Amino acid sequence: MSRFSFAVALLLMAAPCLAAQGGRRSDRSTPEQRKTETIRTTSQRLTRLSSRPDASQENRSLVQKVSSLLERSRQATAGSYLLDRLESAMDDLLDAGEDIFESRLDLRDRQGNRDRQQDAVEARRTTVRELERSYFRIQQGDYFARQSQESDASEYILVARRLYQLARAAYDAGDYVAARGLSEASQKVIDALESLAQAAVPIPEPPRLPEN
Amino acid sequence: MAWYAPDSFRAQGIIIGLASLSMAALAVMLVQDAWDSSRTTLEQATQQQCAAAARELREQFAERASLLGAAAGTLRFEAEDVSLRGLSAAVLRSYENVEGGFLLGSQKQVAGHIGRPDFPGSQHFDDVAARLVAGLGAQASTSPNLILDHVVDGTNLLVGAAVRVDSHDAVAFTLKRLPGANDPAAQRRRWWLAGLVLSGLLGLGGIVSISIRLRQGVATLNSGLSRLERDFNYRLPSISGDFGKVAEAINRMAVVRGSLETTLRRQDRLAALGKVVAGVAHEIRNPLNALSLTLELLERRVRKGLATGDEAREAILEVERLERILSRLLAFGRPEMENRHVQNLQPLLERVLRVVDDQSRRKHVHVTLAEPGPMQLQADVDALAIEQVLINILLNAIDASPEGGVVKVHVAAESQGVRIEVHDKGPAIPDGIRDHLFDPYFTTKESGTGLGLAVSLEIVCHHGGTIDFESGDSGTTFILKLPANGNHV
After folding, report:
1. Which domain CATH number covers B114?
2. Are A50 and A93 spatial neighbours (Cβ–Cβ below 8 Å)?
3. Is B118 within a domain?
4. How many whole angstroms separate alpha carbon A69 and alpha carbon A61?
5. A-chain residues within 8 Å CB-CB of B123?
6. Which B residues 117-136 touch A at CB under 8 Å?
7. DSSP string, A41-53
8. Which of B107, B113, B237, B386 could bridge B101 with an S-S bond, Cβ 3.0-4.6 Å?
9. Rounded (10°) CA dihedral A179, A181, A182, A183
């Protein structure tokens, strides 16, 4: 076997190991590395969201909230429960921004095509269920807002309610796709608030049943 | 605005009606409250409420779990607890004073529990609540059905419900605390209060009934008395109750009064008959005097052999006058003027003066006929009737005149008849009797009957004339107006 052949063979043998090592890099990475990576990807998503041609108030609010949480994440201890919940909240808010944007883009793309919806009845039923879920989540938002102890917690509920109202308007207009997107965005805002409530400490001790 | 008077039946009825309505509303509210507060009712209603809340918790838990999918259970328990508390808070806000949550895993760990802020310490179970929830969880985890249970804690009652969340190792439970629901004394008090108010309501109903009967009774009596005023033979209808006794008493009184009136009427008739007899005597006394004088004169002349037919004729005339006076007295109230015609008043006045001549001589009163005399004056009269009127007026004037006084008779023509005035110098007629001078049977004389001027007024009125008087310090003047040709003056 020539030196070249040996090198190729060695490379081929090592390739799966290297590939496996690269694929598990997140698993084996340190908490600091994971934190850096999360902040990086979140910053990229935030930049993408803020650069979208959507000047709506909801979008601005979401960008502002994510920016604020991102700043808190930078100061949070790597690998902590707090950082985990802040990451979850930021993800939810960025997802909500994507949903809003896609709902509106989708709305523009669907101009004049509503009649071609294949299963309008099913779409309507699904949208109604989604709207009900959003309404119920907004009701939970009051509790999460109290528990989160965030000074701007009420703004999350305001944004969620506004998105729910937009979803209702889209539903009334027969645009079920947009209604579902906005409804999901509303739920994700509450999800973010829920994550912030989970991040708040201390958590009240749940009652215990007798041992016997 | 008679209804507004506070003492009117209508106003009292309105006040009592309003009070009754208020009392009825209060009674209904108290009975409803007592019923709702009874332990059985309260427990059933609370069980239904807890059951509905537990079912809704189960549904929301299942939906959340299905949405989370594999992500469920990756969070630490504290975070899961917060999420479930939010879910419980959203569900239980529709159920007043219901607390609840979930029992997770085989250890039945309590999660997502929302207590009531108005029950201090309910965030953490007390022993009683913990026992109830543990019992519910144990039963629900092995049963597909909803489990209902309750625990008595002194006077308080705890009602709970639990249901297993299918395909998940969880149980949704709810709990409601009912302070005082197991207090029999409080229950009794409520029923006693409701009973008292109901008794009061019955009393008010009685008052309303009495008020209505009172009003109807008074109305019946009122209308009956009004009819009795018009028809004394009418008798009030029989009414039940105390008003019936009043109606019977009024009917008895009407019978007695009718009997009394009959008696009085008989007595009045007898008295009137006596007065009429006295009046007749009065009326015929004057012609009888004249007849007596004429007969005396005739007797003296017959004795002297100087008798002529004049005195006898005079006597016959007086007898005829007596007969006609009697006829008219019998027909008092419906005098007839059979001999009425236009005639010269001169002979009439001369006859009158002759009749009163004897009376005036006895009283030394001079009766004069003032100039110009009635030579050419005529009137449409019944001579005998008008003579009677003038004799009555002249005799009254002579009686009223002082001794030696003068009574003047003045006759004059008027536009539609004749005016005759009789003036005396006597004292003025007192004010108190002026309005009664022409009343029948009114007299100020001991021997009078009170018929003279009453009869005179009637005679003059039937002639279409008038009779009046003026009286003052200078004396009294009776003014007689008679029609010249049958018309009224």
Report:
1. 3.30.450
2. no
3. yes
4. 12
5. 204, 207
6. 123-125, 127, 130-131, 133-134
7. HHHHHHHHHHHSS
8. B113
9. 80
With beta carbons under 8 A apart, name residues in chain A contacting B162.
Answer: none
ipTM score for this prediction:
0.76
Q: How far apart are CA B308 and CA B476, in angstroms?
A: 41
Of the residues B154, B182, B210, the one at which a domain ends: B182
pLDDT tens for A198-210 read 988 665 566 677 7
B32 located within any domain:
no
Between chains, do A209 and B133 touch, taking CB under 8 Å as contact? yes
Any idea how long chain A is? 212
Q: Identify which of A81, A85, A209 has the shortest CB distance to residue B108.
A: A209
Number of domains in chain B: 2
Do A203 and B134 count as a contact with CB atoms less than 8 A apart? Answer: no
Distance (Å, whole) CA B164 – CA B142: 8
Pairing of strands B147-153, B109-114: unpaired
Measured between alpha carbons, how far is B379 from B358 in angstroms, rounded to an integer?
A: 27
**Contacts of residue B82 in chain A, CB cutoff 8 Å?**
144, 147, 194, 197-198, 200, 203
Contact call for B90 and A140, based on CB within 8 A: yes
What is this structure's pTM? 0.52
Return d(Cα B468, Cα B455) in angstroms, integer. 14
Q: Do A198 and B75 touch (CB under 8 A)?
A: yes
Name B409's Cβ contacts closer than 8 Å, sequence gap at least 6. Answer: B349, B353, B367, B368, B369, B370, B394, B420, B421, B422, B423
Smallest CA–CA distance, residue A197 to chain B, in Å, is 7
- Looking from the CA of B266 toward its CB, the CA atoms found within 13 Å total 5
Q: Are A198 and B87 within 8 A, CB to CB?
A: no
Put simply, whether B72 touches A (Cβ < 8 Å) is no
Torsion angle of C-alpha atoms B370, B372, B375, B379, degrees rounded to 10: -80
CA B128 to chain centre: 72
- Which candidate, B318, B459, B315, B293, places its Cα nearest to that of B388? B459
Q: How far is A92 from chain B (nearest CA, A)?
A: 14
Chain A residues in contact with B85 (beta carbon < 8 A): 143, 147
Residue given tokens 């250890």 in the structure block: B107
What residues does each domain of chain A span? 31-199
Ranges in chain B, pLDDT < 70: 1-9, 37, 71-73, 116-124, 272, 275-276, 279, 327-338, 371-375, 441, 446-449, 486-489
Q: Residue A143: which of B85, B130, B134 has the nearest Cβ?
A: B85
A:B CB pairs within 8 Å: 71
* pLDDT digits 0-9 by tens, B164-174: 998 788 999 99
- Closest chain B C-alpha to A98 CA, distance in angstroms: 20
CATH number at residue B401: 3.30.565.10
Q: Is residue B206 part of a domain?
A: no
